[in-house]
Specification:
Blueprint: H1 2-16, H2 37-43, H3 50-59, H4 61-67, E1 75-79, H5 85-94, E2 99-104, H6 106-121, E3 129-133, E4 147-153, H7 156-161, H8 166-176, E5 177-188, H9 207-216, E6 220-225, H10 241-244, E7 253-259
Parallel strand pairs: 1-2, 1-4, 2-3, 4-5
Antiparallel strand pairs: 5-7, 6-7
Helix pairs in contact: 2-4
Length: 261
Amino acid sequence: MRGPVVLLLSMVMMACKKPAPAPEGGVTGATTGAVSSAARAVVDAPDRTAEDRALDAGRHPAEMLSFFGIQPGMQVAELAAGGGYTAELLQRAVGPTGKVYGQNSPWLLERFAQKPWTERLARPVMKGVIRVDRAFDDPLPPEAKGLDAVFMVLFYHDTIWQKVDRARMNKAIHDALKPGGVYAIVDHSGRPGTGISEVETLHRIEEKAVREEILQAGFKLTGEANFLRNPADTRDWNDSPRAAAERRGTSDRFVLKFVKP
């Protein structure tokens, strides 16, 4: 009888075992990152560059497009588009009936984005992308209204050390979105208690700090995803692309979906 007794005890212990803690905040709607067939087709497009494909393993673009619900015909924007990796994915996802505003600040353009961004915009697939050169304090042109989504990928932390008026920036994003529109945030995780103290030294930000600022702008947090989580990341190293080197794409990152009520 020892075997059945041991098995019964094991089952009881499994039933009583506490689940692993949820990502910071524990928002209902967390997801591992289901992928739609449309998003997979975007990522698998044969004319994407080898350089972009090399980044996919660390970015999970199909999961990102699926989680934020990007569909053909949508009007979206990306702030801090950089060289255009995400902006191109968005353009492919919204298709010829949609519209993408790709914003870069003068600082970004002067430092590194001017050449790669200009070259990418010359590609036929980027025909529907509207180039926006504006400061983050007022990032979108007046005609960018009623947007379905605004993205900021791996850059919110940079707006802090660059002394951006984030209350003004977040209000501008809120104003540009339609009711129900999504403010999509992806960023590198800082350790609990670090707040915004390591946004320049390690290019990381505590998730709690981002949540608080965006909620104060009138948004509601409706979901989070864990497809970019990495529990093995010690979160004590600089994850900017140049400093990270071979560790690029391995940082623990949070993915948050805010919605304009």
